[in-house]
Amino acid sequence: MDDEAIRQAQADEEMISAAYQKLIDTYLASPHRKKVDIISRAFNFAKQAHKGVRRLSGEPYIMHPLAVAQIVCGEIGLGSTSICAALLHDVVEDTDYTVEDLTNIFGEKIAQIVDGLTKISGGIFGDKASAQAESFKKLLLTMSDDIRVILIKISDRLHNMRTLGSQPPHKQYKIAGETLYIYAPLAHRLGLNLIKEELEDFSFRYEHPEAYEQICKQLDDIRPHLDEAFRTFILPIREKLDKLGLHYDIKARIKRPYSIWSKMQNKGVTFEEIYDILAVRVIFDPHSPDTEINDCFQIYAACTSIYKAHPDRFRDWLSNPKSNGYQALHTTLMSKQGRWIELQIRSRRMDDMAERGFAAHWKYKEGEKDTSASETELEKWLSTIKEILDDPQPSAMDFLSTIKLNLYSSEILVITPKGEFKTMPAGCTALDFAFSIHSVLGTHCIGAKVNHQLVPISYRLKSGDQVEILTSNTLRVEPSWINFVTTAKAKNKIEAILRRQRREQQKRGEEIFEQWCKQNDLELNSQMLDRLAMYHMLETREELYTSLGAGTVTLSDEDLHTLKSDSNKESGSRGWTKYIPFYKRKRSSDSAPTKSRDKEQQPTFVVDRKKPLYLSEENIGRVNMCPTCNPIPGDEVLGYLDDQNRVIVHKRNCSIANRLKNVDGNHILAVFWDTHKQISFAATLHLEGIDRVGIIKSMTDVITEQLNVNVHQLSIAAREGIFQGDIELSVHDTDDLDVIIQKLQKIDGIEEVKRVS
After folding, report:
1. DSSP symbols for 425-480
2. Is 93 one of the annotated active-site residues of the chain?
3. Which of 13, 14, 25, 93 is catalytic?
4. Catalytic residue chosen out of the listed positions 94, 352, 391, 542
5. Both 42 and 162 in a single domain?
6. Active site residue 94
7. Cross-strand bridge partners of residue 614
8. What tens digit of pLDDT does each residue of 348-383 get?
9. Are residues 353 and 476 in the same domain?
10. pLDDT digits over 236-280, tens only?
């Protein structure tokens, strides 16, 4: 070994030792029982197993398990079993050691957790949607058995996001998209607010680096102003709280970059129009555990005696915590400077739960066992997950979307006829509420009484509604019901019932068809079924059976005539086509594609997925632009290589691109613009404002005469003095578009101009 290699080995050893010592120091400072010996054995075992292996960042591989263990211990608050599992989480997958080896050395519990982590390794998503759903299902199964599996997996993903800079761009887009789609919502659902926010910000940073840097710069620019607003706002509050004799801290909460950007995208507003960037938190030590809630209201009363409260922005999460365990009192106060500022009031315990999640206080925590008979909200959610897993989904992507429904929604409180409060996702319907109480109630629901008023099953509930479900024993679940629900449980139950009904109808249809064949002395065969299915405009013989069973199709003499006349045809397979006018045309286009279509399906050009693709004047015509998001130069984009070797370019925040990153992330390409204002692209602007004589002329003068821009289409409509309109024009890039928007906004009467896809 040369001198350089020796120095590198020494540096590696020092780095590893320092990281391990930091982990032990963090563990010893925690309230857990001090089982340092087993952690030391797990560390040495993992260190030896990963010896000589390095990450893409260049550091020894053992630094990754150490970092994951540090997050598990220091940021989530788990104990020795979880720390050991985190240190060993890649051993079974990446080395020759087996789960049995770990069981013999470290015991069954640690080995089970590592086994659960190994089953969901390599990210939730693979090359195919079905494989992705299966991996996600395994994740949920292991999570419902032992919540520590998903907590360690989230920690693993957090460290991967912290070191994502060493990955190539196309991998960054895939991993960031996957993180936003599943891991951040899971962290939110488990109450891990700090980790959720960090995952979101890292995903935002790698998917939209320019937007991320811009928002960070804008936050830095206004930080002195926010600091001054905070100091001025809390000064009289401190005086009031000191008189109450409480020990407290007051903290400023600055909205995170991803949260700001999301609001800008969803509301269509600028950074300057985000008014809730600053919030204030009062975190206090209660006089006693029994007075915790009363102390919160005392602080609220003290603050509202200084500042006026917004009448519609009071939220009480004390008596009825959110489903992830969150408790606090929220109000919004008008400062002396004329600015609305949200105030959040929490005890020290509530703050710990809000930031680190009640998963850290889970019943598996070492040295403790939760003997409480009451079912926690987390346990209720896990029970719902198990119910969904018990009903197999026919489509892999349906399974993913069904689970996703319950991960990331705001919440409302709904009241039962007996006065019990029930937490439901915002936007839920009366039918969702019925299924949440019991499947039988949902299955027979015909409507509801909300606040004693009769409403349909599709009625969207609001917080505070008192709901009584009305039922009928003769009612059957209808396919349209799937459009009336938003929760995973209700959607899953309805689909399961509809599948069962279809199976029953199909079986009944088979019996009807067999009886009809006997009556008409026909020999049942597959060709006959296919011909009849075509005749009745159905795609498959299964659909024919189902339609017969449901009574939407009946067999008549005309069907018999069709079969018999068809059997006399020379080909034996074309006579029935006369009953289907479009059939020949369809077959013709399928079997003999036109030149233009054939050309469209030809592979465009060879693409190396590992290297960025630069869109220049020479190759821009060989890619397809997504019609949904309509990207133009200056937009942050990515590419997708489809199964016909065509490249489709999307904005990185396009809804289709977000799905592709999760469904088929291995076909994502890094794409960058290289057009240099040589090519024009179509873009559409939406305008709103006060109608006046000459407003259209003012617009066209600016666009065509001042800026020399070609207008493709102009559509303006006015009503009651307000106009709205869309203008489609040719631009080279987003810089051109920004100039046009700025010029149009200066026209008298125009209140809003924004780009639309």
Report:
1. ETT-BHHHHHHHH-HHHHHTEEEEEETTEEE-TTPBP-TT-BEEEEE-TT----GG
2. yes
3. 93
4. 94
5. yes
6. yes
7. 672
8. 988 888 887 755 454 334 444 443 333 455 666 666
9. no
10. 999 999 998 889 999 999 999 999 999 888 887 888 888 889 999
